[in-house]
């Protein structure tokens, strides 16, 4: 090896020399020593390689600075110890955004999580007898009260709710379902696959766009275990279409002694038409129509924690409670605590709308959105570089989570364009900001949708945009 290069390599400071510096001491105070040493090795190894690869001419001007090495070590430590699951700013306008964690919890649910995390709780104990109780009693009464059902059970998510319902009611038998309802929900949930998994044979009836009661009638036989209806929550079949009403299926089912299961997807408990949304059938509607079992998600339109909620006739819910799968799909104390607190808010509709962030974001008025857009725009204008162009405009946001699939919610957005950077580049920089900011891109502009922004997000957005220079 070249002698001068060797000389340079020898100038790379030793680990102990770096640790003896002020910043080195500070790093040891702030991080585990082993990790700091690992960071120093990582950075100095890179430096060594850099020197070996460098032309001699450039090497003459190259200076090794201990401070710079330690700065890089610090960066390494910050990255290494930062969490993978980060809180983000959701400026996409999609309220139930599955990739960003679906629903935000109401204050009462957050407090409950804090409580059950720091204290022992009455998860599975009967206070009167002091004997073992059942965790399922915790929300069953509230759920039956709110939905009108006889009994209720909560499992890990709606996919497991459907799996458990089918397994316990129709294993080894057939489930009759309309072809137009063989849905796929993002992230590999497909009704035909769930059926296979639960040991239930699929008996499709009707065509893609139309199914009649007579189709179900013809398909019913001694092997039929359930009649399944799936709410086509993330799409709508429009045009020349026909579906059989839940009521129709219930009548047919009771004639033949076959239970009717409805997968509602994102079950909703309240009518949001007073706030300008279209009517979405509620869980109560399904129970009233006589469904034997109804399943829905806890973290879609309900606005609670991830959970699969099963309500319906006691005889069927009891079968599910004792099914061995139920143990594998059971929910923990955090889910139950947050769900109970969320459901409590539903005792009064206006209260639920105010307290539950998902409902609040879906029903916020246009005026309010516009006012907030202008307020945020004014803050942003003060800091952004002159290369940005900014406008406040009316736009459309979506409910998300496979709910209200065709509903266009009027919203206000801040529209940003930049003279040199593309919308994709700006969006990427915002995503890589700390905290990350997620936006929507439309026609070459970055849009910040006020519907899903909270007031405390404003400062983060302003800071993130302030840091984009050129
Ligand atoms: C979302 C959805 C599911 C899956 O619910 P998860 O809670 O995400 O497991 C199942 N069926 C329908 C119709 C859905 O919309």
What separation lies between the terminal Cα atoms? 43 Å
CATH uppermost class of the largest domain: Alpha Beta
Spatial extent as radius of gyration: 29 Å
Q: How many strands in all? A: 15
Average pLDDT number: 94
Low-confidence residue ranges: none
Number of helices: 21
Name the beta content range: 15-25%
Overall SS class: alpha/beta
Shape: elongated
Helical fraction equals: 40-55%
Provide the number of structural domains: 3
Cofactor: pyridoxal 5'-phosphate
Protein name: L-seryl-tRNA(Sec) selenium transferase
Family: Belongs to the SelA family.
EC number: 2.9.1.1
Q: Your description of this structure?
A:
It contains 21 helices and 15 strands. With 470 residues, it is of the alpha/beta class. It has three domains: 3-80, no CATH class; 89-97 and 362-466, Aspartate Aminotransferase, domain 1; 107-355, Type I PLP-dependent aspartate aminotransferase-like (Major domain) (Aspartate Aminotransferase, domain 2). The strands form four sheets. Strands 2-10-9-8-7-3-6 form a seven-stranded mixed sheet, with helices on both faces. Helix 7 (107-118) runs antiparallel to helix 16 (333-344). It is elongated. Bound molecules: pyridoxal-5'-phosphate (PLP). Residues 157-159, 183, 185, 189, 230-231, 233, 263, 265-266, 297, 308, 402 line the site of pyridoxal-5'-phosphate.
């Amino acid at each position: 090896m070249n002698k001068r290069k060797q000389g340079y390599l020898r100038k790379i400071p030793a680990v102990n020399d770096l640790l003896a510096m002020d910043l080195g001491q500070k790093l040891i105070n702030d991080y585990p020593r082993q990790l700091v040493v690992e960071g120093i090795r990582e950075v100095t190894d890179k430096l060594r390689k850099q020197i070996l690869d460098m032309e001699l001419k450039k090497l003459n001007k190259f200076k090794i600075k201990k401070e710079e090495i330690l700065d890089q070590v610090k960066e390494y430590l910050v990255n290494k110890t930062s969490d993978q699951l980060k809180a983000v700013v959701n400026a996409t306008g999609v309220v139930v955004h599955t990739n960003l964690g679906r629903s935000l919890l109401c204050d009462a649910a957050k407090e409950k999580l804090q409580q059950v995390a720091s204290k022992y709780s009455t998860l599975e104990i009967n206070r009167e007898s002091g004997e073992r109780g059942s965790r399922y009693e915790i929300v069953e009464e509230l759920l039956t009260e709110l939905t009108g059902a006889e009994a209720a059970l909560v499992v890990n998510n709606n996919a497991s709710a459907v799996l458990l319902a089918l397994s316990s009611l129709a294993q080894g038998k057939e489930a009759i379902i309309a072809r137009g309802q063989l849905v796929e929900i993002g992230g590999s949930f497909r009704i035909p696959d769930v059926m296979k998994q639960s040991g239930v044979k699929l008996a499709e009836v009707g065509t893609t766009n139309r199914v009649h009661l007579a189709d179900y009638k013809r398909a019913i036989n001694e092997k039929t275990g359930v009649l399944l209806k799936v709410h086509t929550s993330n799409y709508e079949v429009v045009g020349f279409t026909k579906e059989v009403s839940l009521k129709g299926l219930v009548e047919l089912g009771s004639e033949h002694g076959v239970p009717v299961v409805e997968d509602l997807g994102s079950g909703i408990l309240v009518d949001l038409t007073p706030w300008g949304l279209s009517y979405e059938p509620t869980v109560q509607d399904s129970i009233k129509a006589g469904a034997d079992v109804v399943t829905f998600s806890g973290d879609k339109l309900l606005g609670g924690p991830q959970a699969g909620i099963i309500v319906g006739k006691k005889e069927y819910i009891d079968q599910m409670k004792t099914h061995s799968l139920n143990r594998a799909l059971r929910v923990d104390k955090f889910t139950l605590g947050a769900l109970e607190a969320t459901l409590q808010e539903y005792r009064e509709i206006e209260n639920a709308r105010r307290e539950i962030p998902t409902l609040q974001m879906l029903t916020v008025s246009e005026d309010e959105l516009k006012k907030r857009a202008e307020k945020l725009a004014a803050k942003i204008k003060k800091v952004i570089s002159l290369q940005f162009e900014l406008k406040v405009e009316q736009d459309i946001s979506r409910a998300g989570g496979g709910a209200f699939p065709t509903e266009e919610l009027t919203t206000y957005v801040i529209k940003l364009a930049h003279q040199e950077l593309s919308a994709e580049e700006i969006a990427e920089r915002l995503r890589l900001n700390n905290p990350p900011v997620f936006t929507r891109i439309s026609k070459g502009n970055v849009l910040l949708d006020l519907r899903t922004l909270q007031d405390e997000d404003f400062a983060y957005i302003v800071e993130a945009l302030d840091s984009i220079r050129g």
